[in-house]
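S1.2 Input.
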Amino acid sequence: MTPSRTVRWTAGWLLAAVWALSFPLFSGLAPHRLWGWCAAAGYLAAAAATALGRRREALGAALLGAVAVPLLYLVLTGQGQSEVGVIERSGRLLLATGKTYVDHPAGVGEYTPYLPAMSLLGLPRALLDGGSGWGGGWAVRLLGDARIWCAAALAGGTWAGRRLLGAAPSPLLPLLVASPVVALPLAVSGVDLPLAGLCCLALAAAASGRPALAGVALGAACALKWTALPAVAVAAALLGSRRGARAAVRCAVVAGAVTAALVLPGALLQPGELWRQVFAFPTGRSEVATPAASPLPGHLLAELGPWGWYLTVALLGLGGLGVALSLWVRPPRTLVAAADRLALGLTLAFLLAPAARFGYLALPVLLVVWARSAAPAGAVPSRVVARSGRRGPRPAPVR
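S1.3 Output.
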C-alpha cells in the first residue's frame, strides 16, 4: 500500500470512529450507545493497524469491534431496537393463530409496519421457544434472534447474486459489512437487510438473463416491505434492455404472483389491520404517530399540517414518475446502472416520505457498493438483445 493510500485508509477508519462515537454522546437508545463504544474501539484499532501497514488486521479489528462483539452481546442479552421484538412477535402470532398483526393495537409497540412475509423471520424464535425445551437460554437467543436470520438473508442474497454473475472475490464486501452503513443495522435491528439481499439477488438475476428467478426474488422482497416495489420496475427495465420485452413481462408476472401468494392470506384474514399498520402508520395517517421522524425534507413538510402532508406526497409521486420516465427513456443495461437507478429512486423516496429515518438511506448505499463489488464499473456491457422479444444467445455475465 502506497503512503498516500495508507493516509486515506487511516483517515477513513478515523472518520468511522468519530461517527461511531456520536452514538454514545447523542443517542437515547441503549443498543446504539453500546454499538458506538464497541465500533469506535474497533475503528480506532483499524486505523492504528492501517498506519502500521497491516491492512488485513485492520479489517479484522473493524469487523470484530463493529459487528461481532456488539451483535453477540446484544443478541445474548436480549437487547435491540423495537423492530427485533416486532418481527419475533409477528412470528409467534403466525405460529399460534395464523395472523401476523395485533388486532386493534393500543400503542406504537403493538404495530407491525411490515408485510406478512416478514413474520417468517420471526418463526425460528417462536419454534425454539415453543417446542425445543431450551427455554430462554443463550442457544434460543442466538439461534432464534431475528437479527441473525435477517443477516443470513442478506448474506444469502448477496452471495447467490455474485455466484450468478461469476464475480471474483472483492475486498469491497467485507469493508461494506465493517462500515457503519451495514454494521449498525446488523447489530441493533437488521430489519432492512433481507430486503437488501433480495434486491441484490433480483438485480443479479436480471443482469444474467434469468427473469423467473428475478421475479421470485422481487416477489419475496415485495412481501416483506412495500418499499421494494421500485426494484420491480428497475429489474424489468434491465431485462427489457438486455433480453427483450417478453423477459421483462415474465419477471413482473412472476413477481406479482409470488407477492400475492405470500401477502394475500394475511390480507384476507386482517385487511383492516394490514392497511392500518403497514400503510397508514408508516405514512403518518394513523391515530398513533410513527417513531420514524428523522428531520428529512418530507417529514419536515408533513409537520407543517395537512397541506404539508399532501405536498410531500405529491413531491414523492413526482419523484417516482421522474425515475419511471428515466427507465423508459434510458433503461439501464448493466448491473451497476440498474443498482444506481434503484438507489436513486429509493433515496428520493426516503427523503420525501412523510415519515422516515436516516438509517433507511443505508439500503441505497449498500446496493451501489455491492453492485460494484460484483460488476466493477467500466466493464463492457454484453450485447443487447433486440426488443422484438426473440430469445437470442444468453449474454455473458456483466463483470
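S1.4 Remarks. The radius of gyration is 21 Å.
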